[in-house]
Specification:
The protein has 10 helices and no strands. By secondary structure, it is mainly alpha-helical. Keywords: Hydrolase.
Length: 216
């Protein structure tokens, strides 16, 4: 985990340099975000997830119209995470607006808030920047088999309070929702590198759940 913490800090330093924020304010923001992503209830929605997202972001940022807004959305999209709540995205969007209103223009703030809300349903958009953001957030589905299995374990840990049979039903519904998306990824870049593996990961995992009919 230490390597992810180190990368998390390095990425933040690069980001704060890119928008040239006040040093005290950006350091305070970092402290809030870091404290959020190491909360005890998190196992997947941690600094590891943010670092993995940012690594992908830096691969495609030249394709974006507003890379600063996309990166801001990545930093805040899971800033509030309670596995027992249904409004994490709304709470994360509100937190971003409250903390960043003096650092970015209001058009960007409103746009990023809307994008964070969009990570709840992952619906295709006419906004290419948003599609890249959503693809980055779902990139874990197309990770190598070892990482995908780790991801599944991490999600199960976050929902360890749910009775196992009910968890299996609800988790299979989530995975089936993504599996049924045609395609899962909305940008050509991520379709080319992740689509096939994501489908394979999802199908293999769904077959492990009893009484699950895989809907193509």
């Amino acid at each position: 985990m230490q390597k992810y913490i180190d990368q998390f800090q390095k990425y933040w330093e690069q980001f704060s340099d890119s928008f040239k924020g006040d040093a005290d304010q950006t350091q305070a923001l970092y402290a809030i975000l870091f404290a959020a992503y190491i909360e005890q209830q998190r196992h997947y929605h941690t600094v590891q997830h943010i670092v993995e997202c940012l690594k992908l972001f830096h691969q495609i940022k030249e394709q974006l119209d507003d890379p600063i807004a996309v990166e801001l959305a990545i930093w805040f999209h899971d800033a509030v995470y309670d596995p027992k709540a249904s409004d994490n995205e709304a709470q994360s969007a509100d937190l971003m607006q409250n903390l960043c209103s003096t650092l970015f223009n209001q058009v960007q703030i409103k746009k990023v808030a809307d994008w964070i809300m969009a990570t709840k349903k992952h619906q295709p958009s006419s906004d290419l920047d948003l599609n890249y953001l959503l693809d980055i957030d779902l990139a874990i589905l197309g990770s190598d088999r070892k990482r995908f299995e780790e991801y599944e374990q991490q999600i199960q840990q976050e929902y360890s309070w749910v009775e196992p049979d009910l968890y299996n039903i609800k988790r299979s519904e989530v995975l089936q929702y993504f599996y049924a998306m045609q395609p899962i990824y909305q940008t050509e870049y991520f379709q080319n590198i992740l689509e096939k593996r994501a489908k394979n990961n999802l199908e293999t995992t769904l077959l492990k759940f009893s009484n699950v009919e895989i809907k193509h």
